[in-house]
Amino acid sequence: MAVGLWAAKKVKNSEDWFVGGRSMGPWITALAHGSSSLGGVYQLTWIAWSVLSPAFIPCIIGGLYWKNATKGGAIAAMLVGSVTGFGWYYLLQEITNIHTFFAALVLATAAYIIASKLTKKPPQEVLDLFYYAKSFDPADAGSEAVSPAKAVAESSDGTKPSTVSAGIQMSADQFRAVLENA
Q1: At 2, which helix (H) or strand (E)?
Q2: For residue 174, what pLDDT is reported?
Q3: Does the pTM of the predicted model rise above 0.85?
């Protein structure tokens, strides 16, 4: 407030008001420019999260958890989600009072499911990889494959396994042996 009062005393006409009397100096000018430019960064971040992310969320979740997901479904979700996101953001958000994120997410998910149902299923090799990766999930009660923890527990050396960490599992005795040989 003190800066405003000080600057108000320096203003003699409208040109002084618009250009600050050109007596503010380069640091104040740079700070003012930087603060006004941050609005553009905020706007781009807002567009990225509310407009574009709904196009990719169905692809990520569906690709991880739905075995019938297809490439065509993912492409459809990205196209419908992006076009809906931009269209809704610039044309319909204020009219409908529905946030862009939710509208684009619903339509992208619908496009993902419909296009995945209408396009050819993934090849059997891809489904085999899906089931193979799923077989290592200890939380999957329906899996008949042996989990890595159970495989080490049933190892021939008779040592009890420790917890799994980053894909490596060994007992405390095995770890000590590795350290002693190093």
Answers
A1: helix 2-10
A2: 72
A3: no
Tokens of 83: 């076009």
In percent, how much of the chain has pLDDT > 90? 23
**74 CB contacts (<8 Å, ≥6 apart)?**
59, 62, 63, 112
Which 3 state secondary structure label does DSSP give 165?
strand
Instruction: Give me the phi and psi of 168, to 5 degrees please.
Output: -110, 130
**Dihedral of the CA atoms 17, 20, 21, 25 (nearest 10)?**
180
**Three-state secondary structure along 117-165?**
HHCCCCCHHHHHHHHHHHCCCCCCCCCCCCCHHHHHHCCCCCCCCCCCE
Quick one: residue 97, left, alpha or beta (phi over 0 = left, psi -120 to 50 = alpha)?
A: left
What is the rounded CA–CA span in Å between residue 79 and residue 98? 20
Return d(Cα 178, Cα 156) in angstroms, integer: 18
Lookup: tokens for 26: 């380069």
Please report where in the chains the tokens 């969320």 appear, as a residue: 57
165 bridge partner residues? 168
**Structure tokens, 158:** 């008779």
Residue 18 DSSP SS3 = helix
